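quick q for whoever's on today - can somebody do inverse folding on this one?? i tried earlier but teh output was garbage lol. tokens:
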């Protein structure tokens, strides 16, 4: 997600196993179970106010999604959210919050609200996860690791898990010894700190999403299913899964996500939810509908 996502969350807050990953392996392996498909509601955050959250959830369910991940609650109480989800046969499989939601003063309240509509996975997608200009990265990351470890321990008392969602910066920012932000964070946080990998951003950063499940296994109840539409030559991108960014002539020029390879890795790792996130067509269903159809064509749903 990008800066506009962080601003969006801020405004809403103010308002209210290695062998299983082998090349060519098919996940008919014993113990492998396909994750279900959900949608991150940020994908339609401009559409929701025009029709209301209740109707938007009904539309999401009609498309075929089995769950949703929130990015703000549109002024609804946990009880209201639970009823809307139940009425539409949907699961609240996660939510995105600002890092302050994990502070000692807020983590209990954060967990209790989410438990109220049935969610136990609480993720921070960026805001507060990066150092301020001029701030030492090494010192910041040591603080951040302690912060997440403490919050995860407290959240566990309520049956919840907290975690981090990536962009490209987690892979491009490096400490003095050359260790990336990403590797330092997940090598030093407890295993109950979740890894919600955005596979589009990981691909954009030049890294293999599947490798991250090898390196940090069984920490990912969810993943973000996003296509890569970034790159200097990209002029056309609709945010639809299976359609990477294209140049002015319509030729694919961005490295796309290897969805078949990802399916093997994610299923073997035990990812429970593939959360579709589309960063185009926020005011319509025009990206999340074909994205669901794409995953269905891949046998995900």
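ok took a stab at it. sequence:
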């Amino acid at each position: 997600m990008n800066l506009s996502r962080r601003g969006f969350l801020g405004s809403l807050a103010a308002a209210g196993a290695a062998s299983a990953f082998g090349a060519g392996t098919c996940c008919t392996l014993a113990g492998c179970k396909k994750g279900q498909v959900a949608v991150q509601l940020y994908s339609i955050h401009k559409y929701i106010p025009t029709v209301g959250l209740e109707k938007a959830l009904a539309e999401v369910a009609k498309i075929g999604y089995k769950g949703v991940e929130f990015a703000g609650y549109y002024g609804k109480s946990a009880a209201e959210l639970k009823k809307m989800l139940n009425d539409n046969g949907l699961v609240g499989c996660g939510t995105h919050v600002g890092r302050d939601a994990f502070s000692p003063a807020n983590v209990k309240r954060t967990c209790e609200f989410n438990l109220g509509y049935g969610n136990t996975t609480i993720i921070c997608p960026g805001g507060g996860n990066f150092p301020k200009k001029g701030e030492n990265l090494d010192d910041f990351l040591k603080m951040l690791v302690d912060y997440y470890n403490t919050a995860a321990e407290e959240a566990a008392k309520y049956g919840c898990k907290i975690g981090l969602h990536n962009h490209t910066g987690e892979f491009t920012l490096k400490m003095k010894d050359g260790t990336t932000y990403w590797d330092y964070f997940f090598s030093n946080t407890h295993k109950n700190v979740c890894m919600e990998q955005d596979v589009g951003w990981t691909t954009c950063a030049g890294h293999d999403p599947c490798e991250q499940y090898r390196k940090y296994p069984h920490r990912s109840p969810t993943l973000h299913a996003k296509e890569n539409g970034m790159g200097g030559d990209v002029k056309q991108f609709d945010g639809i899964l299976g359609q990477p960014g294209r140049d002015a002539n319509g030729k694919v020029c961005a490295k796309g996500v290897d969805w078949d390879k990802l399916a093997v890795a994610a299923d073997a790792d035990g990812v429970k939810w593939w959360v579709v996130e589309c960063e185009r067509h926020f005011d319509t269903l025009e990206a999340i509908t074909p994205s669901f159809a794409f995953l269905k064509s891949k046998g995900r749903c």
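fwiw Confidence is low (pLDDT under 50) at residues 13-31. also The beta strands are 36-40, 67-70, 91-96, 121-124, 161-165, 193-198, 222-225, 273-276. so keep that in mind when u check it
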